[in-house]
Each structure stands twice: as structure tokens, then as C-alpha cells.
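so my prof wants the structure for this chain in the C-alpha cells format not the other one, which i didnt know existed until like an hour ago. anyway here's the sequence
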Amino acid sequence: MFVKDAKEAVMLNIQFLFEQIQSDIVDALEKGDLLPGAKLPSENAYASKNGVSRFTVRKAYGVLEEKGILFRRKGSGSYVADTALDRVYEILRRKKYRIAVVLPEMNEQFFPLVRQGIHDAMMRYNCSSEQFRNLTKRNESEIINRIVEEKFDGVLFSPNRFRDSYGYKTFEKIERHGIPVTMIGKPPVNFFCDAVYYDDIHGAFGAVKDFYYYKYATVAHITNSAGDIQSVNERKEGYILGMEKYFPGVNPKIFDTEAWDFDAALLSWLKTVPLRIGVFLYDDTILKRVYPIFLESGRSIPKSLAVLGYNNYEEICNSFPIKFSSVHVPKIILGRRAFELLYKKMTNKALTEVRHILLNPNIIHRNSF
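here's what i got, hopefully its the right format
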């Protein structure tokens, strides 16, 4: 029994070393460290340097020759074939990749559609995914530790971006372990990875532009400082830029739903401004909070008050007697494009450039405008 087990252990070790040699050569090609035409170390030199037998090296080289990755010149040695990269990418495409999909607010309006886009794209490739929900900074760190420990092949990540929880330190562990990451949303400063996101500044600027073309006299912005810090700041910036461009001389008016006097301040403004006015919302979910205030103000929508939301949550926008207009962001496309970027990085590690895809929102007009 002992002799049999010992023999099996030796054979398993040879098999492991044989596969490891192949894997090392494929990895070098994938990363661009080996190029077509390059000469490989001789069997003796490779065996001596790596502490393996010449037989194991010869077997590994032979299999790679059969796959069209290497070729042998008699009396000269083994070389990388011109077709090597094509053969390597074929092998990688057949590999089943395991992807971590990390998204906040799994039951909210936004991310189910992003997940649908990811799923639709994954159906065309040989991939499996595991879903994670990052609710807090601590929870997000635990997820990252698991991704590294279990050696996922890639990560689709929409970070938790609330107040002080968003920064490079959260993600550097993934970077150190060389796991490809594509961000859904703008990455933090100093974390360089592929990303897909929509242009919130452009979306908010375009919203103000529409109020101007429909001849409203001024526009107020209602924000929520407890929300996603990146989108809060960018939509506010786009609003202010739009006011400077289309309403010069009119002071921007910003209300925060987190302010203690929000309801009273908004109602007072709606009642005291005598002109046709517009209200641009940070997010459609704010409608539930502000709609009773609009009614109490006595203003007629859209005759004396136009309202434009953000994210185009149809279930919310269509749930009032007035169907509310909203800035639409392409959520399904967001998920699909993010997966496509990640897949390219997983299957071609020689790709070192960072790519950002910026999607432009558009406005869906309904009865509130």
C-alpha cells in the first residue's frame, strides 16, 4: 500500500510540474514577456534552473508544439511559433472564468438592470459569477479579502461611495494580487482600472439646458447629501455649470433633503417666486418626499412648475397622477459594456492600457415638463 501511494505521489508531482511548465509559458505569452520567434531555454537549461527533470520539460515542450504554440528546429532548439498568440487566446477563450460581481443596493431600482446587462453579456461566454452585496465599508473589505483568497479570475465592482468610505486603499489589495477589475462607476483617485460610467455632469447640464429652452425663468436643484457622494457632487456641478451658461446672473438654488428645514424652505421658495420655475431632482426617489410639497404650494405642473428627475425609474415616475420626466441612464448597457471590458482583460493580460467608457444620459419627457 505504501509503495503504491508513493508511486502515485511521484506521478502526481510529475503531472503538476508538467502542467506548471506549460502554464508558465502560456502566462509569459499572455503578458507579452515571450513573443513569436523567441527562443526558449534548452531542455537541460530549463530543467536545471527550475529543479525539474529533462523528461518533464521535454513532455511539456512537446505538448505545446502539438498545440501550435512552439516549434522545434533540429539542432537549434524550441521557439515560439508565429501562431502562438492565436492559440493561447483560443485556450483562454475555452477556459471557464469565475467572476465576482460586487454591487450595492441589490434590491433597489438601479442595480437589477445593471445585473441584467452583465448576465446578458455573460451568456455569450464561458463564465460563471458570484454575487456580492457591499453595504458598508467593513463588508466591502471582507468581500475583497474573499475575492483574493479564492482567486477569482476577475471582478466587476460598483464601489460603496458613501461619504468617507470611498478611496484607493479599499481596492489596492485586489491590484496587488493582479486580479483584473472593471469598475461600474468612476474609480477612486489613484486606482487605475477599466471603468464604465455615465456622465453625470453632462446629464445635469443638459437638464438645465432643457429648462432654458422650455422658457422657465429659473431652476432649483434638490439634492441628497446622504447619497452616492460621486453622483451627488457631479450632478450638483453640472447643475451649477448649466445655470452659469443658460441663466447668467441668476443665483443657483440648492435644497438638501437632509437639511432640518428642507420641507419649509422648499415650500417657501415655491410660494414666493412669482415666475415659471423648474426643479431638477438628484434622483427620482426624492419624488415621494417632494410631491406633497409641490401640491401644497398650489403650483400647476407643468404650467408654472416643471419637474425633472434623474435615473428614470419608470415605476416611480409613473406612479403619480402626473407622469414625471427624468434623465435616463442606460443601466443595461452599463452592465454589458463593463463585462465586455473585463472579459478582454481576463483573456489578454498583455493589455496594459486602462480604458474608460463614458455613456451619455438622455432625457425622457413625460407630463411634468
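also thought this was worth mentioning. Confidence is low (pLDDT under 50) at residues 1-14.
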